[in-house]
Specification:
This protein is mainly β and 329 residues long. The protein has three helices and 20 strands. The structure holds calcium ion.
Length: 329
């Protein structure tokens, strides 16, 4: 009897060991999609997952695959991994656009395997940073001179700027890639600005909604600017000139305006004007109001002389989802 028990114990262990060494694990996560394709991220702490999942072995970044789950369908998506200073890091992956706001929340499965076990090739993403903007770095053109998926060039007062050549897609001066947006200020003219994410209610080209945001969450808004001989500022608070000003308008679920966050991006003493600077990064963190579901992000150049270039805007959730559970496949 005792021998039989020992034998059963050994057989049990043998199968367990083999299942663990051959088996896979997965985490589930829900992601808010946009109407356009985006690059998003989740945080993973491998040591934590190994403990909560009672995994007998080590899991690491070399055996990750990301799948979007649509009903019964499981579609592998492009992904990348960026190590963080802490244990683990960020899984960066592509999230397809979804026009229907009722279907905006998408389910993803992140698959892991034991260290050194995964031999199949995976869909690799080259991008290392999550970004929710509709056209990263203004690189894609809808048609000659007009950036794709971003209606800044033909709405209201911006259309006028475009027609006058005071807002354009510049292919000579850029921070990254091969293009940037150039804004030219002129005396007695409305100040030039660009819309980074579409207005709410914008119906052309399938943009029925602007950037979807999660109420109460923190978002990062960053962008690069370069300026040439900027002067005659519209705003002069406390002896300073505001040269680049950006803002975010928040809207409720029905698209009604709620409030605005203002960011004084570039400001200098009035005595230093006209001011010229090389590429500078400006970043700010914003908490979405508890009743806001959409945000319109803009950058403006409130001066009457000079040129400002804007490139590589980035909008991203500060506290991205973290993988907290792991299941056995
Ligand atoms: Ca660019």
């Amino acid at each position: 009897m005792r021998i039989l028990l020992i034998l059963l114990f050994l057989i049990f262990n043998f199968f367990c060991f083999n299942t663990y060494s051959e088996g896979s694990y997965y985490s589930e996560v829900e992601i808010l999609s946009q109407t356009w394709d985006t690059i998003q991220k989740v945080y993973v702490d491998f040591e934590y997952l190994t403990t909560v999942g009672d995994i007998k072995g080590e899991i690491d970044e070399n055996s990750i695959k990301v799948y979007q789950i649509e009903g019964e369908k499981k579609i592998e998506v492009l992904s990348n991994f960026v190590k963080s200073e802490k244990e683990g890091g960020y899984i960066i992956f592509e999230v397809k656009g979804e026009k229907d706001p009722d279907k905006a929340i998408k389910k993803f499965h992140i698959y892991f395997d034991l260290k050194g076990k995964w031999i199949e090739s995976k869909k690799k993403l080259e991008i290392k940073e999550a970004n929710l903007v509709p056209n990263i770095g203004f690189e894609e053109e809808e048609k000659e001179g007009i950036p794709a998926r971003t209606p800044y060039f033909y709405t209201g007062s911006i259309k006028e700027l475009f027609d006058e050549g005071r807002i354009s897609l510049d292919k000579q001066v850029y921070y990254k890639g091969k293009k940037s947006i150039k804004l030219i200020a002129e005396k007695d003219k409305p100040t030039p600005s660009i819309v980074i994410t579409p207005y709410t209610g914008y119906k052309r080209e399938g943009f029925s909604y602007s950037l979807r945001v999660q109420p109460g969450k923190k978002y990062k808004f960053g962008y690069w600017t370069k300026g040439e001989k900027c002067g005659s500022p519209v705003y002069k608070p406390g002896g300073n000139a505001v040269i680049v000003l950006s803002w975010i308008n928040w809207y409720d679920k029905e698209g009604n305006y709620l409030s605005r966050n203002e960011i004084k991006g570039i400001r200098y003493s009035l005595s230093e004007l006209p001011y010229t600077w090389d590429w500078v990064y400006n970043e700010s963190i914003h908490i979405v109001p508890s009743n806001a579901y959409y945000g319109v992000f803009m950058v403006s150049f409130p001066c009457y002389e000079g040129i400002v270039w804007v490139d590589e805007p980035i909008i991203d959730l500060v506290d991205c989802p973290t993988l907290t559970e792991v299941y056995k496949k």
